[in-house]
Specification:
Chain lengths: 146, 146, 146, 146, 146, 146, 146, 146, 146, 146
């Protein structure tokens, strides 16, 4: 997988329009992380959402169709090399088993869904240095027995 | 890397004592996720914390020294096969670039620290099915120029 | 990951008792595939199920605790070398994209759950050679937008 | 391997014609999953089938030759990153050994063919959420001794 | 996967008995390559074959059960390092596509079965140096359409 | 490595001329498998052979030079995904050690050459289904001591 | 990841201008290693820095925007093949654990930041052969407990 | 490669003696990083050095022989998972090409030796947080032409 | 890494001029292996050498600059598939540890430099078949202690 | 593959006897590199050679049988981490294609055998630092056409 061509087009248009993802959040009524996922073709927009987005960015309607298709998901190498993205790999490597232990204790045998799932990013002001706050909320899915 | 021998000892002792990680949270005054990380030797306890933990679990003091050592971190294969842990890999694959986009827009060029970092798990009751809520808070570290 | 020690104990006990998985299906009231998953520690039994299983196999009650724990899942190498198991990898390689196309057309953007999921194996008599019939049923999970 | 250029041409033509794979199933007299496999060049059509398909999609006859060639099969990375396709990898990782156990008990030492093989997808309405039902039928091939 | 413990036991017993695989071929009425596959637990013997083999090697009957089990198949690393075995990997790398071309031209879209399959090794005397002659015979399996 | 551009040119020309590899075998006086290897640039033709081939296919003489060059050999991914080619990988995985055992017993410590090597494919009619017969003949090379 | 197109443009312009990185260090007031990182799009310049750089190299202002963007970082294969770069991989392989031991003894459980980090290269004259002196300075980040 | 057994013995003895690597530096007259490399069997001690070390740690002379042997070097997985060690991998990924550019500009085509090489770690007090200072000094080796 | 474009240009020019590497050895006063390394951009020529080479091959002076640049080195996949090149990988796999043993016994703990290094190829006539003689000469570099 | 247990036994016995490989060369009448290959179970000794070796090392005759068996060859990871052995990997990466070019020009399409092959190591005194001289001699094997 590599970054789709449309991503650069969208990011450039957004830069030229001087829009932030927070601005787009207001226009689309969707969270900025989800909108960034549409930019990278990791989420599919409805016709309505795609139209709003394309208009906001001043792009031709021709892009609407691509944004509403169901993309092949997953980007980048097996182990990411970008330091920002790698930190999430590291969290999975270091805290994966502890998280499994805690989630199982609270919920039983199952998983946190990455599909019925939301993801938010907030900036927390802190005198010792601002903090990135990430909130994930995924439906617990218990293993079905049959 | 493979799961350390001490992990099974600690988990069995905890089971026999009928203690939850939430119980240990009260005893140690540390978050349950962090305590689970100590169980898996992904975090190092102070002498005081190790002593409290070993006592609570009814284990011999001999384990204190190991729990205070600085462990080699990172567990499991390059791509995890356990479905619960894999979902965090999937989140990194699918949402890694969107997260990078949003964090950079809010903070500039840099990363969310995975060291000056906390991680919490909560159970959110939901009539459509309970949800796992995970909150990460990491200090933003801007790239230094020199 | 490697095959757990308990798996061989269970398989040998089953062989010595002359029991088939179909026999165990009747005893436990669970599907034989699910029971085989418990043997390989890919599924966790309830206390009741573990007790029934251990008794049926003539094993000591000491195994009950292990069978009710929540296992680390996923077995074998990244690409399986066993020809029977490899064929499922091949099906994923050859028919993965076509399946994605059909599922998305029928359901929209989302996945078939591998957690809220059942799996059955049947033997279909056929004059040209018996056939293996595998039926998977997984809940469709649409991508949540937020 | 990467997705062939012809795939996009076929998918776009299908979209423009407003045809579903179910529609094509009626036109070609072949299962929709098999037809999707032809789209992704994982199966080869007969001249007759290719002609029917190309006509239905309103494409030039020039594509017929490519669709009847015997393709190099297998798509995507060693471990798929797309969540929908990954779930089939996960099923193989988690249930591969249990499936091997059950198939061998029922049939003896051998495999389920992935060549003399059919694959169907159905939508099962369910009040708790629709389900994806996948049915595989492969000829059992016993290991030949010599 | 690694070489099973029983393999060394069998090979040592064979050495001590001064038997060649050709000798065992006469005793079991099976080809020597197939018998060597049983030694490496890549093929499963019938009770009768296992009994004959164990007796010929002067081993305890306790090994019969293991030899009749259905083994997990596939040995060695992803790319073999042993020069003799590597040459077969090299043949697949260099001649794989040409073989595909020829087999498809002669038979159509399908594969040579590696299950309904026999494998023979002969020594061909040659004044310029003896030659290894390997004969593979596998049933052609055409892709089923559905 | 990926399939060379010239391969498609040669295969298309062959198709347009309605020639089989067996036809080319008669024209060049070389085995069809070897000729297919030239098509995939895994073997180098002499000037004479290249000229005969290019003429038979009705191509410009410009291709002669490329066909006589010494190619970089080896095609496809580390583990092949095409089912037909994969079966040769599987044979190496499953029967590699047994083959090593038999060859060493017959010849001593050494290898079967993949260079001083021939490879033939025949179609064997069989009422239970035609069979692919592959014959490899490679010079035995004993390890030199020094 | 592969080397960005802009890198070659910048390196060629620098060559044509006859400038060394040390010259650019004086012009930008930034260390030459950091400037080389900007060339390879591993660091992002401010508008001011990008303008100075583009002017010094005699390039069009159009490149300024790209140089100020936040790049995807990390270049080259998993294990580098270039001998100069490999030596840093080798240092990590050979001295990684000793470094961990020493840093932990001096600082406690934590890491040396690769973000709040500087890197200098000096040439040390030495009669037995000049030496490369590399100085890294990274903020120590202690693991946060929570 | 995995961490040698002797490493744990040496680290435990050092802990029990209450010695730091800085203490050992004074006793052996060698840098603490080099001594830590001996602990991890990445460097070989002279008889004299091994004797001093074993005596200082209160261990039996039996360990001297092992410490003077020439070890197989390189520890840990292809991409390290321990966060402290990973940062050196990240530095190589992010700054490898810039370092190559600077070293080549200063020295010509060649490498920094990782053999004729020294490595020092210092603690730099800093009001904004202490810093880890690492100094590498490797002989420049120009590519020989012949 | 992939083979640079300039390599094909140089090889074609050499072919058209009817020059062997031995001819170029006489013209440049450098060994033919080194010159072939320049062709593949694994070694950098001086201005003088590049000029001589470009003239001998009848190419435009524009190529001189590229040939004098310091290339990124290392070609081909992690494990080579070309049989000729693979044999050097095999020699490293099979004889790597024995070579380490002998070199260390003769020289102590250290390495043979691959930088201060020469490589020659000779053809040795032999009635049983000509032999390839390869001579490597690399400076021994003892591990520095500090 | 990992280093066989017998290797350590042989190396320790050799150390205790105060023998060098050069001494063993005189005793066995075989080259020291070949003898080191026997130590690492990469070459098989004759009964006579094994007997001489075992006697010279003062070991029990029980080891003779193991040393005359035909070993599984190839040691260490896919990419070696030991710096001495890695340099041979690097030579293959950097000089593999140039060597292919030169060998093909001198000999035609074929390979240098790694089986009908000898390998010698010499110490060359040099005032600028002693040099390791490695001489490989392998029979040229031309590709057979058929």
């Amino acid at each position: 997988m590599s970054i789709p061509n449309i991503t650069e087009t969208l990011l450039n248009a957004k830069k030229n329009k001087g829009l932030s993802f927070a601005d787009l959040e207001k226009i689309l009524g969707r969270d900025e992380v989800w909108i960034a996922s549409v930019f990278y073709r990791q989420a599919s927009a409805s016709d309505e959402e795609a139209k709003l987005l394309v208009e906001a960015l001043g792009l031709e309607p021709i892009y609407i169709q691509e944004l509403t298709g169901y993309p092949v998901k997953g980007l980048g190498p097996v182990v990411p090399t970008d330091p920002l993205i790698y930190r999430f790999y590291e969290i999975m490597q270091v805290y994966g088993f502890p998280l499994k232990e805690i989630i199982q204790e609270k919920f039983g045998d199952g998983i946190m869904s990455a599909i019925d799932f939301t993801l938010d990013v907030e900036k927390e002001a802190d005198p010792k240095g601002d903090r990135v706050k990430i909130t994930m909320s995924g439906k617990f899915l218990p293993y079905k027995k049959w």
